Each structure stands twice: as structure tokens, then as C-alpha cells.
Amino acid sequence: MQYTIKHLFHIDASKQNVFKAISSIEGLRSWWTIQTKGDANIEGTIQFDFGETIGPKMKVIKLEPDHEVIWKCVASNHGWVDHTFVFLLDEHDGKTRVQFEHNGWKEQNEFYGICNFSWGRYLLSLRKYCETGKGEAFGSAEYK
User: Fold this and answer.
1) Helices 110-132 and 15-23, interaxial angle, to 10°?
2) How much is the pTM?
3) pLDDT at residue 144 tops 90
């Protein structure tokens, strides 16, 4: 059995702006971690680091403009290898609805809980970035 972290929320911004924020290096640096580098194109890999901590390396396996982004973790010091990360966008009540999934957990342990909480925090940063132009990415002056 596998478990999934799921979040569903709305952003008062266009699907195009939200898609750019989740599918470009510049966008990802603005809401997740300023230490984001790599190739955000299909089949490219993106490295996400957090200060001295080497974070996950993701392979971009699907990019459907203004609708869907899927990554597969190909390197991780935290057990995320082969986990998939899905961002699905649609319009709902005049806003962009984001359905996020972090798939591949073997158990709902303490680390699962920590990651679930952290994803919630960073997804709020994504919303803030898309709505105001200023996210709270790890390493930024706005990060609290």
C-alpha cells in the first residue's frame, strides 16, 4: 500500500501565471527554495537545495501548458526516490484551483507528517507569489 499527501486550494491568479510559477526555474525559486537550478523542460532535471541540505532532484515527466506538471524524484537523501509530484490546474469560481499530490509514501510516519505540513506552507507561498509577486521561498528575505 502507498500513501499520498494531497492539497487542494485556490489562487486568485490566471492558470497561465500559476503554471509559470510551477514550471519555470525562476518561478520555483520564488516560492519553494531560492536554491533551485536545472532544466525545467520535459525530461529535464531540477535540483532543489535548502541551505546546506541537498534536497531532491526531480525529473520533469509531464508538462501540459496551463494544466499539469508532473515530476518524478530521481535522487533524494530523504527517501523520496521514485515519488511523484503532481500539480493539476483548472478554473473554479473565477480562480485557479490547484490539486497537488506527493505520491509514493510507504507509510504515514512522522516524516510524512512533517512533509505534509511543509508542503502546506510552501503551497501558501506559491499562492502568495502568484497573487502578490512575492513568495516566501526558503532562503529569501520573506522566509519566516
Assistant:
1) 130
2) 0.97
3) no
Phi, psi of 65 (to 5 degrees): -45, 130
Nine-digit cell at 74?
530521481
Query: What cell was used for 37?
Result: 537550478
Distances (CA, A) of 14 to 10, 99, 126, 134: 11, 15, 13, 16
68-75/3-11 β-pairing: unpaired
Let me know how many helices (H) and strands (E) the chain has, helices first: 3, 7
- The region that residue 93 occupies, defined by phi over 0 for left and psi between -120 and 50 for alpha, beta otherwise, is left
Copy the grid coordinates of residue 69.
Answer: 506538471
Give the tens place of pLDDT for each residue, 79-134.
999 999 999 999 999 999 999 999 999 999 999 999 999 999 999 999 999 999 99
Residue type for position 95: K
